[in-house]
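Q: What does the predicted 3D structure of MOSC N-terminal beta barrel domain-containing protein look like?
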Amino acid sequence: MPKLDRVSIYPIKSLDGLVVSQAEVLSSGALRGDREFAIVDAQGNFVNAKRNPSVHLLRARFDLVQRFVYLNHQNSDCPEVCFHLDERREAIAAWLSEFFGMTVQIVQNLEMGFPDDPKSPGPTVVSTASLQAVADWFPELTLDQTRLRFRTNLEFGDVPAFWEDRLFSTEGNVVKFQIGNVRIHGINPCQRCPVPTRDPLTGEVYANFQKIFVSQRRETLPTEVERSRFNHFYRLTVNTQIPASEAGKILRVGDAIEIL
């Protein structure tokens, strides 16, 4: 039976993630703590790896129980620094401003975080087999490196590659499924940005990554998939919405997954 094998959240948008054993659903459908914070510039625009590749050189560790973030520049000899996420936000912004060479701020959204698709703020989903299949398209990539490139929240086990592609339908319709006791709506295959084309730790671009990906994705797309949702094939993982009725419920590693 399909089951939930891995849960990851990303406390600060665009920075390193945190693997957890469970996650609480918020009223917005987002996961508590996922993209709760974001880095913005003086104009209020996100400072992310899409527009600023130097983000790839920034390492972050989190202790969400104590509410600490540990930051360091991986190419610097300077020691790792620790900040309290709530009490020292101005100090975090000052450290990041020096790192980026421009003034930035840290903003917070406790209700929904800062998802890439505000219309579908639920967790992104993928199967482990899909990530392994993608890794196999590129001789230099491992499963873990592929995980870092695609930054998905929920990873499914005991299913074949691209099983998650059955979790969306025609535009305007949803596929209802359940993880444990949490009801979820599958919306659409996620359109990818330039980030997966780069080494997640160095920012180095993998030559022809998108071209290879698109060719392989087209060839391996399951026959039963709703192809009308693919205006192009640079898509992987599924965007979701979670009804407000599920707020407060917990997604746990090991939960069974069922299409309703």
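A (community wiki): The structure tokens above were generated from the sequence. Residues 190 and 242 are 16 Å apart (CA to CA). The chain has two domains: 3-8+115-259, 37-108.
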